[in-house]
Amino acid sequence: MYVNSIFKKKKLSENVTSQEQSMTMKEKALYGSSKIRMEAKNLYVKYGTTIGVNNVSVPLYNEKVTALIGPSGCGKTTFLRALNRMHDLSRTATVTGEVLLDGLNIYDPKVNPVNIRRKIGMVFQKPTPFPTMSIFDNVVAGLKLVGIKDKKFLREVCEKSLVQAALFDEVKDRLNSPGGSLSGGQQQRLSIARALAIEPEVILMDEPTSSLDPKSTAKIEDLMVELKNKYSIVIVTHNLAQAGRISDYSIFMYLGELIEYGKTKKMFQNPKDKRTEEYLTGKFG
Amino acid sequence: MIKPKKTLRQRNIKDRFMVSLLVLSTIIVMTPLLIIIAYVVINGVSALNWDFFTQELGSPARAMQGKPTGLIHTMIGTAVVDFLALIIAIPVGVGAGIMLSEYPDNKLNPLLRIINDTLNGMPAILKGLLAFALIVKPMGTFSGLSGGFALAFVMIPIIARSTESALMSIPWSIREAGLAIGLPRWRVVLSTVMPAARTGLVTGFLIAFARAVGEAAPLMFTSFGNNYLPNRWIGMLLGPVDTLPQRLYSLAISPYKEWHAMGWAAGIVLLFFVMALFIMARLLTRKKVYY
Questions:
Q1: Residue A183 lies inside a defined structural domain of this protein
Q2: Which of A52, A252, B118, B201 is most exposed by smallest CB count within 10 Å?
Q3: How does DSSP assign B170-196, residue by residue?
Q4: pTM (predicted TM-score)
Q5: Average pLDDT over residues A144-152
Q6: How many Å lie between the alpha carbon of B162 and the closest alpha carbon of chain A?
Q7: pLDDT category, A26, cuts 50, 70, 90?
Q8: Looking at this predicted complex, what is its ipTM?
Q9: Residue spans per domain, chain B
């Protein structure tokens, strides 16, 4: 909370109620009555003339895990990266349409992407510890580098985040050794701890377990189930079993388009679209 | 097994032939350097003595009468002027390098790249002229300060380029990771990318420094040269100062054979100093950072 209070200059959470009211009865029946945390509206992402994400509109619910599934190259990652303005740095990618966070369009020219990214954290496919920083500095990088110097507070946050990421016991005796000295699975959990340290509201995960062994994968899956009590989680995964285990909602994408969206259980047992069915049964993708 | 068209013996002969071509070109590259080093050392070593490293040059009469004479003022002057140049060039060069590498989306970038490359290819004497017009004319005197600026113009494009490539060698994912935890772009560059690229950055500084140390032309009408050590330290910056490459030139064109020998000795000092810098740069790049 301390962290968020620093970044309260732009308050984004005023329109929550109106957002909820705008849900129709039909939608409520379909998706349950959870709060919508984020919402994509007519979102397009283009790389030059190639279309990466084609007119996707979808709500993402608070305190739920939403899984993005689909064959390689279908635009899952591109969509995910559009949710916290990661395409800003790319010269080729252009984003049109809206992404609402608590009712406010994050692509509004008045919105500073830096503030958005403190509310919408991201974990990448490959672990990305900062190479020159210690484990401790890696975890609190998002706090220390914006001027928070209270050592006691930093230590508390570091411990809390590492405990949440199920890494604390393994590294508590060597918080000062370099982040790069950890194993791949530990580095990935370190990246997760770093994302948690700034207390975001939404966490985006891009295939966080694709390079991990089953044991680390299980740890991270447990972690996600635990984290959804507090955060909204969006996860890209190629592992359908994983999507089935941990997600509440699933989005099936194909060739940049949203084909099907719904509760994971319903969708996995009884897909409406033929392509979803074929993908889920392993006929393509 | 599918048999290759040629026998193993034929292929081995071809392999050896190609490798010997490589060795030959290496020898061709090395020979001039070795000849220059040998020639300079043979001619100059006789003038290298204790006085050479402790005394001022003074008038030609000193050398002709066998009185103690040396180039201590030149070595000090070189150090002052070149470090001044480095201090001026590092912030500017690094800034331009960051711009080139980290802000490829900026509209000014293509222009910056063209200007930087042009500056890099421009004859060094023109940079001396620029410093002359900017500093020597308004000050009304030749000075170490103007020499520092002239050499900074030599260093800046080299540092910009080396900074760019050092930063580019850091994986893009590091930057995204920094942005994803809500750091502003400048903070990501300063606190995550630049520390990771520090060896590359320092190597670039050394290479630029080594390049500028050997430049005589930009100093001819900026730091100008001086047979004596300035009385006060500030005189190094505000008055004419001696530097090795320019002193080497003036000794070489002088009519005194004692000075010629000293010129060769100055060549040895310069050569080994530059070599030491490049070897240092080489050793630095050898250390690897693991990601």
A1: no
A2: B118
A3: S-HHHHHHHHHTT--HHHHIIIIIHHH
A4: 0.83
A5: 91
A6: 20
A7: low
A8: 0.81
A9: 8-33, 50-286
